[in-house]
Structure formats: C-alpha cells, structure tokens
Amino acid sequence: MSSLHQSWYEAGARERIAALVDAGSFTEYVGPERRETSPHLGIFDLPAQFDDGIVVGAATVDGTPILIAAQEGRFMGGAFGEVHGAKLTGLLRAAKALNRDVVIAFDTGGVRLQEANAGEIAIAEIMRAVTEARIAGVRVVGLIGGRAGCYGGGGLIAGCCSTLIISEQGRISVTGPEVIETNKGVEEFDSRDRALVWRTMGGKHRTLIGGADLFVDDDAAAFRAAMLAALVRPAKAGSVRNASSVPFGRGERPGLDLATLDAEQDRLERRIARFGDAADATDIWRTLGIDDARAIPDMPSAAFATLAAQYRESADDAR
Amino acid sequence: MEILHFDIAAPVPAGGTRAMALVGVVASGNLEVLVERGAAADRCAIEISTAAHGFRDLWDAVVADFVGRRAAGGLRIAINDGGARPDTVSLRLAQAVRMIEEPEA
Amino acid sequence: MRQWNTRKQMREERIAAGRGFATGKLVDPETLVDFLEAVLRPGDRVCLEGDNQKQADVLAKGLAAMDPARIHDLHMVQSGVVLPEHLDVFDSGIAKRLDFSYSGPQSARIARMLFGGKIELGAIHTYLELFARYFVDLTPQVALIAAVSADRHGNLYTGPNTEDTPTVVEATSFGSGLVIAQVGEIVDTLPRVDIPGDQVHFVLDAGRPFYVEPLFTRDPAAMTETQILTAMLAIKGLYQPYGVRRLNHGIGFNTAAIELLLPTYGEKLGLKGKICTHWALNPHPTLIPAIEAGWVEQVHCFGSEVGMEDYLAARPDIFFTGPDGSLRSNRAFSQTAGLYACDMFIGSTLQIDLAGHSSTITANRIAGFGGAPNMGSDARGRRHPSAPWLQAGAEADPDTAAPLRRGRKLVVQIGETFGEGNAPLFVEKLGALELAEKLDLDLAPIMVYADDTTHIVTEEGIANLLLCRNADEREQAIRGVAGFTEIGRGRDKAMVERLRERKIIQRPEDLGIDPLDANRNMLAARSIKDLMLASGGLYRPPSRFRNW
C-alpha cells in the first residue's frame, strides 16, 4: 500500500526473513508454537517470548537452499540468552553438516544481563560454529541495519562472518555508546550525541574502514540484492570464480584458513598504525583521502557508495 | 509472572484455514499474541502471562469485548505481555484473528 | 483644561531617558539593564515577546536582571510564558500580575507559583482573545519584541517567525507605547520590511539569533499502530463523508499520523483533491509527503518551524512568502482564518468529561490555551456556507428549515483512550474544575466546551455528538468510545449498541477498516530522514531529530 520501500530498520525478524527468501520457502525450526522460552527470565519476573527473540530455519533464495536466522531487536534489545544462542549455534552446526550457506540478520545489544553466563557461553559457541562452518567452505553472511544495531558479542560474531552487509542506520561495535560514556566519561564519548554515535559506529564509517563489505539503503529489497551478491562471492579471498557463469551453492568453495587469518591480522595492524591517533571518524575519512569528510553523514546512499568504492579500506582479505 | 486463564463462549467461529498466527512482540508497552486452533468451535481459550500483576478485571473486560466483536470461536490464544495498555491488547487480538484468516504466507 | 496627549508625552519622556544608553535607536548592549530601568516605570503594562515559538530571550534576561527596588509590580501581558525568566520576574517581585495565553514548557512551575500566590492572575486567554484585549483594555505601555535583523532606521525583518510581532507593535506603538526590539544583527538593507521603523523606538543588537524551539516536529518513528488506526478512522469516518477541504490540525501525534496517511490511505480511498486542500497550519514537517504528492493547495501559517525554512521558500505556490522568498507567518491572521474560514478543527486533549468538555489543564499543570479554543469553536459570526458546515448543521438540527439553519464547524477531539503514563483520556471530573476551585477562579479553564465539540475519535471508534438528541445519548456516545477506561467500562451496553445502529457510534469494523492495515508501513514517512528525503533535501531537521 505504501509507496515507500519496506524499511529494514522498521521490520521485525519475521518480516525480514520474508523479504529475503523466496515466497513460501521458509520452514522454521523450533518455532513459537514449540514455546522453547528462556528458563531464566521468569526468575526476574520478566515476560518471555515464544521464539526467545530469534527466528531460525531453512529457505531458498532464487531456488538455492540456505539456512537463515533473524534476531528480533525489540525483544530485550535482541540480546543473546541461553535458548536464543542455542538456536543459532544449532543452525550453524547444521550449515556445516549440510554444507549450506547461512544468512544472519543481526539486531542485538549483546548478551542478556539476566542470563549472562549462558549468553557469554553462547557467544563463544556461535563464534566457534561460524569458524568451523567457514573452514568447511560455508559462507556466513551478516546483515546489519536494525534498531538495536550489532553490539557486544553480536559485534564479535559479526567479525567472524564472511561478508557483512550494512545500511546507514546499522551500527557495529563491541562496547556500546552508553557503556563507553559510563566508564570513560562524557568527554570521551557523549552517548546522546546521535551524530557522533553514527559517525563512530554507523554503517558509513564501518564501510569506509573495511568493517563491513557492502553498503545498502535502508530497504529490505536492497538487503536482499546485496545478500544474493554476497552468496556468489568467493567464500575466501583468492578463490576466483566467475559469478555469472557458476551458480552459487556449487563449484569450488575453499574455506577459511590460517593464511586468511594472518592477512587479516596484518590489515588490522596497518589500520592501527594508520588511524590510531585519529580523534574522530572524520579524521580517519580525511586520512583515507576524502576531502570533504564532514559531508559524509548527509550524503545520499548512491553517492556514498560511489565514494566509498574509491576510498575505503577493503576487508576482502579477511572475508 | 501472573498467569491468567480464560475459557469463554465465542459465538462467531474463526475463519480461514491457517494453523497458527503470531502478531506483536514482547517489548515495553507491547505484547505478542500466538493464535492456534483447537478449542471447541464455540469457545475461545486464552492464556495470558504478564508481569503487571493485579489487572484481572481489566483483562476480563478486554477479553469479553474481543470475543463479542471478533470471530474467535475455536481458537486457543497465548499472550506474553510486556505491560501493554488495554487498547494495544485489543488491537493485537484483532490483528491476530485477522492474520489467521489470511492464506499462508 | 484637560491635556489630551499625556500618553505621548510619557513616551517622549521614556525615549529621552533611554537615549542616554543608546546611539540613535541603537541601545548599547553593555548597558541593557540600566537602559530598561530607565525606560520602564513601576506598575507598567509590559508585553515581553513571549510568542508560541520565538522568544525575545536577551530582553527577557535583561528584564529579569533589573533591580526590583527600582522597577516592580509590572503587569505582564504576553501570549507565551515559555522561558524561565518569564517567571523569574515574578519570583523577584519585578512583575506582579499576569495575563497570558500559553505556557507549555513552564506549565508545572506556573501552577506552583499560582498556588503559592507569587503571581496575580488576570486571566488565561486564547491568542485571539489576548490580542483583542491589546486593543481594548490591556494595551502595553512597553513592548519588548524579537526580530531577525534591523537596519539603522529601526525597520525590522522578522524572517519566517513573524508570529505575534505585527499585532503587538500595532497595539503598542499606535497606542502611544514604547517598542524595543532585540535583533540578531544590524544590516544596511533588509531582505524585506516586516515592521516599519517609525513604529520601533529602540533596537538592541543581541549579536545572535533569538531563541526558537521546534514545537511542531513529530518524529514518525514514534508513531504507534493505535495512532495509525485512530487516524484511519478519522479519514474514513469524518474527512471523507463530510468532504473536509479547509481545516486546522492540532500538534499531536494523532493528527501528524493523519498527515502521513493522506498520500497512502487517503490515496487508496480516492480522496486526493476532495479533502485537506486548504489549511491554517504551522509548517508541520509531517505534511511534506502530502504536499509533495499534490494534495495541498494552500497553507497559511501562525508561525514557522525550525528546519523548514528552505522548503517553505521553495514552495511559494503553497505557502505565503515575502518578496525575499521566505515565509511570512502571522498568528493573529492565521487564528482568524482558523476561526472563520476552516470547516474543521481536529486536535488532541488530555481530559474529556461525560458532557464532552475537554481540557489540557490538570491540577498541577497549567499549559494555557494557545489557539485551540479559537480553532475549536463554532464561529457564531460566520455567514458563508460550505458543504461540510451545512451538513454538520443539518445533523445537529434536522427540524429547522434549511435557509434559517446555522451550519456547524466540525470540532473533533482525537486521542487514545489511555494517554501518557497510562492516564485515562476520559474522566468524571476535569482537573480544570479542581483547579478552578483551588484558585477560586470564576471560570474553569476549559479548552473546548461541550457544545462546540461535534465528534470524539479514539481507537475504539467515532462518536458523533451532533446526532445525539439528549444528555443521556451524549453521555453513552462518549462512554461508547472510551475504551477500557473506567468511563468506558461504565457504559450501558444495550444503549451503546442502539447508538451504533444509528451511526452515532462507528467502530473500525463498521467502517470496513482492517486492523492489519493499522501498520507503520502505511505511513508515507517512517522517520525524520524519510521526511528530509521527501522534501528533496530542503527540510533540514535539527540535530536532535537525526540518527545519521
């Protein structure tokens, strides 16, 4: 009905999956009717959600089978708990066993305070499962552009993915703005300065420093198009494949290896050497060679994507 | 958590063939409503789990209004409530019975 | 022999006293407080601008810094009590008596000070009413006003926020009072002249723009599905059947949701060109999508809105603009337009009682009236017909012969049955009545009287009070849309069903509104950024509304 595109930022977890996959192809695992809810929240007199804030299952995209997960950023800020984490771990282990690519729509503030130990363990298990799946040649594509961003352990998991797709609204970080302000003071980071938060953790900055790979509009269709592109990218740098002639899901898919990790380590060391003294994201953008760095936040997506393609640090070594 | 059960007469049977529908999300001032089939065709069973204690009268009124106005016969409804206002509950219930009438997505 | 020019003489004395602190008309900013003490007299009637949006903030600070031993007992007559200094002068004794209209951000403090006897209250007015009294019995002796810039002759440019200034200056200057203007800069040539220099006696170069607050920016990101449902009810149940083309909207989220549904839901109903074409309205950012989609023919504004300046200048076919290209607003004229030339007012309120009286004043918050009672009242002096006005008149009074029957303005209260902090919209007794008892007022501060209110819209439905034939029906019609509030649960269910059969009450299902459509995807913009994009980048939202 609306003449507008479907906003990714606005959409819920189930709407995001519906926008990404072929119509009618989604089969949910451990769905809400199973009522596998958190065993911890009730102790704190907090309401549970039937799917524990994450939807996982199998679907096809343009006919090719994938596994897919989407976090619900509005339930407990999309935070990881025991059940929530186990659903994602299980999906990733299944991906390795089935040799199917995985798409994860992140929307999370990190680990739930009320089930911190279970949540932290879940983060570690998920990172291991992502890595093992990737070593086996599976692509793990992360999508970031929701209300809660991708913080805490979610930021760590995102860092393990083979491709990250992000919108301007998307934010990636381990420590969130409020926590930085609480620990280091408002002079260090004013969490209420929205423009500062976005230019430090937001999609444009992450794209420019190679913290994300594909920049898209806040549009579910744009996320789908980028996901399709990511699913035909080589699973690892150096594996040259002609995307147009070889359908994704088949062909050579060498996995993550030590050489790739070494290359990423080198890149991160270069990044610290190059930008370590920068006080603000705009300083980094200037160092990248962008003259009018202050114009970046207001720049429309298409213009930004063109500019980013020319100046950005590439993370392709790592992913 | 306070758990409330209602099993009440629902004169108008639910439409559609879909097995279940889910609307809403558990967030502050919001709620999720899971609708499944299985109650007798002229009854509606509702289970509510809420952190806001002591509002049984209000839920009673909302539920009675709902079965009076909407096609809710034969439905089993489960609610996780994040402290939603009665008008929000009413809207979600209306959306849920409309959703289960829709063809499978 | 009576002297007939004492007022003018008094003004000459004040000008002479002020000259010691000024070069020509230009006041030395260093000596502002001394200057004010020189030109003011104890007990003066002073208009400190004090508008809905713009504030003569530097003059307010100067006024508050005066020595109460020298200047005291001022009678403040100003439409807006907005800045802390507006009340500080009462704490210190510089001012004593207050006649005002609106006190949004100071509503809690003004209530405390009234209870504490710090303020002697004249009355709480509507804008038009206070402006009217400027010309009858509340003519200011001194006006302290705000403008964007001045030239050396004292001509003033107000920019888009002209607001009250022409009215205040007209009354003060031609009433032999003294006009002092605060400006952001002195320039050689003004973009346009909003106030002629011979009506202005002194000018203060404040060195920075006056304070102005974005009051009419509603972030679409905060709109709820309940608000969307309520907006759909209003469009399909009121705008469409009455064919409302000339109207005013309040400033709440409910009416902002209506603005954002016009290009989507309104379009689907085929209403483009049939409703919402002519407005008396501030430049709401949420109206941008409807304007861009070609719904709106003309808008006259009370004031402006921060960030909308370039957009307004780029749409002169829609908005009233000056030779410089920028918006010219005027509160008095726009209020008159809302009173006489609009067929509908629709706005939110805090409390509605069982008769249909409504008020935004509660026992500990006195927000004043602003313009809503002028917009939200039937103008008894109206004589020109229009289809919605005649239709409403016929519904209210079917028995009188048409040529002798007055029309009725549609006065609609819209809101959710539970408001902020889960406060019920419907109450047995208005907080305004308790306030009147506490302060021993002759009149309870009612925003819209029951006999002016024609419809109430909530998420539960629409109550058409025009069709009610007695007090009982009216009460049950109100209870019938009061949802799960105590008032709503106290309804006579059988009677409410009979009212529904007579279409006095209409529910979403009666109007064929699908609750699944009450979805944020229905909004033509879902964020401030969407509004900015819809404007082609011309709307520049203030930083607090950005998340990019």
From TrEMBL, chain A:
CoA carboxyltransferase N-terminal domain: from which residue to which, for each copy? 1-239
Entry coiled-coil feature ranges = none
Natural source organism: Sphingomonas aerolata
**Cytoplasm recorded as keyword:** no
- Superkingdom is Bacteria
PROSITE patterns from the UniProt entry: COA_CT_NTER
GO annotation, biological process: carbohydrate metabolic process; fatty acid biosynthetic process; malonyl-CoA biosynthetic process
Spell out the protein name for this chain: Malonate decarboxylase beta subunit
Select a single GO molecular function from the record's annotations and give it: transferase activity
Which keywords appear in this protein's UniProt record, sorted alphabetically? Transferase
Which Pfam families does this entry report, sorted A to Z?
Answer: Carboxyl_trans
Q: Which NCBIfam families match?
A: malonate_beta, PRK07189.1
- The answer to whether the entry has keyword Transport is no
- InterPro entries, from UniProt? AcCoA_carboxyl_beta (IPR034733), ClpP/crotonase-like_dom_sf (IPR029045), COA_CT_N (IPR011762), Malonate_beta (IPR017556)
Q: Where is the signal peptide?
A: none
From TrEMBL, chain B:
Q: Which residues carry this modification: O-(phosphoribosyl dephospho-coenzyme A)serine?
A: S28
Q: Where in the cell is it found?
A: Cytoplasm
Keywords assigned by UniProt, alphabetized: Cytoplasm, Phosphoprotein
What post-translational modification does the entry describe? Covalently binds the prosthetic group of malonate decarboxylase.
Q: Which domain of life is it from?
A: Bacteria
Q: Does the keyword Cytoplasm apply?
A: yes
Q: Identify the Pfam families for this entry.
A: ACP
Q: Which InterPro entries match?
A: Mal_deCO2ase/Cit_lyase_ACP, Malonate_deCO2ase_dsu
Q: State any GO CC term.
A: cytoplasm
Give the protein name, as stated in the record.
Malonate decarboxylase acyl carrier protein
Q: Lineage of the source organism?
A: Bacteria, Pseudomonadati, Pseudomonadota, Alphaproteobacteria, Sphingomonadales
Automatic annotation (TrEMBL), chain C:
Put simply, this protein is called Malonate decarboxylase alpha subunit
Q: Gene3D superfamilies, from UniProt?
A: Glutaconate Coenzyme A-transferase
This protein's source sits in the domain of life called Bacteria
Q: Which GO terms describe its molecular function?
A: transferase activity
